[in-house]
Amino acid sequence: MIVPSSNTCLEPMTYRILEGVDEVSVHFARVPVTRIALDADSMSRFSVDTMTAAAQLLADAKVDVIAWNGTAGSWLGPDYDRQMCAAITESTGVPATTSTLALLDACRAFGATRLGLALPYTSDVAERIASTYRAEGIECTAVEFLGLTENNDFAAVPSAGVAELIAASAQGQPHAVAVVCTNVHGAPEVAPLEAKLGLPIFDSVSATLWKTLEASGVWLPGWGALLENGTMRTGFQRAIGALLEATGADRTTLRIDVPGRGLQVDLAAAECLRPGVPAIRHDASLDQRALNTVSWLELHRSTLVQPHFRADPSPPAALISVYGVNAQMLGPVVRGGELIGWISAHSLTERPWTEADQRAMAQAVAQVHDVLDGARLDGGGDSTRG
Fold first, then answer.
1. How far is CA 54 from CA 32, 166, 329, in A?
2. DSSP string across 228-291
C-alpha cells in the first residue's frame, strides 16, 4: 500500500481489521502529502511518477497487489487512478488499485446509485468529489464536510465527530454512505452505524483493504457489510452481468436468502440493467415468497420460461405496470434441498427465450453456486451450503 506521508490512520487501522488473519501481510511505502487542496502544489503531490517510484519499492517485496491508499482520484477523477494503476502494473508487473476505484466498485457491488458523502475536506474539494461521483452515474444525496485542509487534522477528528458526520451524510434516502478519506477513523463506526441507519457504509480504509483482498478468499466479519459481503456481491454481479449479455435481456437480477450475511429475497442481491431501464433492486414492496411465479419454482425446481404473460403462472402486476416487463425467465437456486433464491431475466417486450438463453441461465445459476461455495458461509450462521 502506498500511503500519504502524514497519514496516521490507515496503517494501524488496517492491522486492526486484519487481527488474527495470519495468511495476509501488508507492507507500506510513503509519498509526500501533508495537506489537501486544489492548488497546483497540492495537486502535484499525486503525480503518476511519484506513485510508480513508490510502487517499484513495494514490488521488491514480491507483493501480490499494490494499492494507492489515498482518495485523490475522487477529486482528480477516476481516469487519473486508472492511468496510475496501468503505469504501476506496467512498471512492476503487479496488479494495482486505489481507494477511489475500490469505492466505485463497492457502489457497483451494492447497487448504490444514490450516495451520501462524509468528508473532512473544504467545500471546494467536497464539490469536486461530488462532481466526480455524479460523472460516474452516482447521485450525491448529501455532501457533509468538515472544512479541514491539513491531513494531520483529519485523523484528529474524534469518533463521536466521525459518527455525526456519517449520520448527517445519510440524509436524502441514499443507497449507501461513503467516508472518502483514508486518514479519518471511520472503520470502527461502520458496523454500529449500519445497524442504526440501515445502510451500507463504505469507509475508504476498509474499501481499499477489501479490494486488495478480493481474490484471496479472506473473509473479515465484524467490520461492516463491505468487508463481509462485498466480494460475494461482486461475484453475483458478474454472474448476472454475463447473463444480461448472453441473452440480450433488459434486466437481470438475483434474489437470494443468505441469513448470516443479511441477504434476503425481498431485496435483490444483484442487478444489471440496459441503459434507460428502471432499477428494481431497492424495491422491497413485495413478499417475494408469496408470488405465483415463485410458488411455481418451489414446486418444479426448474427454469420458468415465459415468452409472454398470457398463461399461468402470472407474475405480480407491478412487474408489468411499474417496471414494464413483458417476458421473463426465472432460474432457481437450490441448495441443500431448499429453494434459497432465483435469477430473473426480464424483457420489456414479448420474446422467445431460446435454448441458448436457457443454457446461459443455467450457467448463471452455476456461477452463483460457485460464489456461494467460495464464501465462508460456515462462519455466518446460515445454512446455504449444499
1. 11, 32, 50
2. HHHHHHHHHHHHHHHHHHHHT-SEEEEEE-BGGGTB-TTS-SEEEE-TTPPP-TT---S-GGGS
The SS3 call for residue 38 is coil
CA distance 369 to 364: 9
Report residue 270: phi and psi, to 5°: -155, 150
The C-alpha atoms of residue 120 and residue 152 are separated, in whole angstroms, by 11
Is residue 327 helix, strand or coil? strand
Q: Record the cell numbers describing residue 320, joined without a space.
A: 408489468
Contacts of 106 by beta carbon, 8 Å cutoff, 6+ apart: 112, 176, 178, 200, 202, 207, 210, 226, 230
pLDDT digit string, tens, across residues 17-55: 999 999 999 999 999 887 576 776 666 667 899 999 999
pLDDT value of residue 383:
35
Pairing outcome for strands 270-273 and 251-256: antiparallel
Specify the pTM.
0.92
What amino acid occupies position 212?
Answer: T
The average pLDDT across 81-102 equals 97
Q: What is the pLDDT of residues 259-286, one digit of tens each?
A: 889 899 999 999 999 999 999 999 999 9
Q: How far apart are CA 251 and CA 214, in angstroms?
A: 26
Report the pLDDT value the prediction gives residue 380, as an integer from 0 to 100. Answer: 43
Question: Would you call 8 exposed, middle or buried from its count of C-beta atoms within 10 A (0-12, 13-18, 19+)?
Answer: middle
Nearest to 219 by CA among 374, 355, 40: 374
